[in-house]
From TrEMBL:
Residues 8-68 form the HTH tetR-type domain. InterPro entries: Homeodomain-like_sf, HTH-type_TetR-like_transc_reg, HTH_TetR. Keywords: DNA-binding, Transcription, Transcription regulation. It holds the Pfam family TetR_N. Residues 31-50 bind DNA. This is DNA-binding transcriptional regulator, AcrR family. GO terms for molecular function: DNA-binding transcription factor activity; transcription cis-regulatory region binding. It comes from Nonomuraea solani. Signal peptide: none annotated.
Length: 195
């Protein structure tokens, strides 16, 4: 892109380019040059808006985590309708078919990125910890509605569901798990918590 040409929504353009590369090629191919080439802009554009590449990646990860807020709200609002297993399976499938699994790999792959994220995200991998909070909140709402047993422990069920779903979706090279496989996993995990 020629110098002096205005780029609209630079951050979003760069974040979208990073997401495409991450999903298509994996974390090892995510470089500043790859991002700017994918975004169709000069390499200097990234460095004008971010302190360095790991700073860019940290903001990219946090931006994608923030996008989970709408998904979390929709899941909480589904409490009391449909089936608990169905709601959870749909939410987990939507989450892990997004960029979430690739972000986990990226955070694991880059030490400096993990260090940067620790400055604002003290524990865990941001996408996974946010997912656990989303699932735990939903399970607590379902327990309060009597659709889970009163002694169900959302704080234990949520990490089990998220961890198991992550394992189902972790292989980026093979086919994604089928909806019925995700539903069967969720049903198995929550079976003891149902009334």
């Amino acid at each position: 892109m020629p110098t002096g040409v205005a780029i609209r929504d630079v951050r979003e353009q760069l974040f979208d380019a990073a997401e495409r590369i991450l999903l298509r090629d994996g974390p090892s191919e995510l470089t500043s040059r790859a991002v700017t080439t994918e975004a169709g802009c000069a390499k200097g554009v990234l460095h004008r808006h971010f302190t360095d590449f790991d700073g860019f990646l940290a903001e990219f990860v946090l931006d994608r985590v923030d996008r989970m807020d709408a998904r979390a709200a929709a899941l909480r609002e589904s409490a009391g309708s449909g089936s608990v297993a169905g709601n959870l399976a749909d939410a987990l499938k939507a989450l892990f078919e997004s960029v979430a699994v690739a972000i986990v790999a990226l955070v694991t792959f880059r030490d400096e990125l993990r260090a940067r994220l620790r400055q604002t995200w003290p524990a865990g991998v941001p996408v996974l910890t946010e997912a656990m909070g989303m699932i735990e909140s939903y399970l607590a709402a379902e327990r309060d509605l009597g659709r889970l047993r009163a002694d169900a422990v959302p704080g234990m069920l949520a990490p089990t569901l998220v961890g198991t779903a992550h394992l189902l979706f972790a292989d980026r090279t093979g086919p994604a798990p089928r909806a019925e496989d995700v539903h069967r996993m969720v049903s198995t995990v929550i079976s003891g918590a149902l009334p």
